[in-house]
Amino acid sequence: MDIMRERPRHAAAIEDLVVDCFGEGRFGKTVYRLRDGVRPNNELGLVALEDGELVGTLRFWPIHVDGIGETILLGPLAVAEGLRSSGIGSRLMRAGLSRAAAFGHRSVILVGDEPYYRRFGFRRDLTLGLMLPGPVDYDRLLGLELVPGALANARGLIGRADGIPVRYEMAEMAVA
Description:
Elements: E1 2-5, H1 11-22, H2 30-35, E2 46-50, E3 53-65, E4 69-79, H3 88-102, E5 107-111, H4 114-117, E6 130-131, E7 141-145, E8 156-160
Parallel strand pairs: 4-5, 6-8
Antiparallel strand pairs: 1-2, 2-3, 3-4, 3-8, 5-7
């Protein structure tokens, strides 16, 4: 298996994989609203290829966090159904976080399962002062400091890096 930087030619296969993993309902979630109309961070996006077939993907997105400014939002991390628990997700995570640090990013935020992401250093206590502009299970709002102390002043609202407000209609709300 090869892990490589995401390229435009991977876009359709990435979308198919993400639909298979998370379904169409994902678009109502808060994290997807932060990403809506925003391009992922091109230098950090990774794919896993097995015999030329895309079997995993990891993306990062620019966000704004009050108190620290711009940082990155991790997700989705998606692996083909028959290959989950085979280490592909872990390899993508380690490579992606290493790239993020190499490109000078100081911190990473995500909404995900703490028991899975803690092995990569993500912690809930780093995001206790943060809020998302929509429904979220705050036990799943996690942070990672690539530089010690990078999230120390993070307080308040997480928003889009472009400053466009995130809006929700009651019928569209889903927990992130």
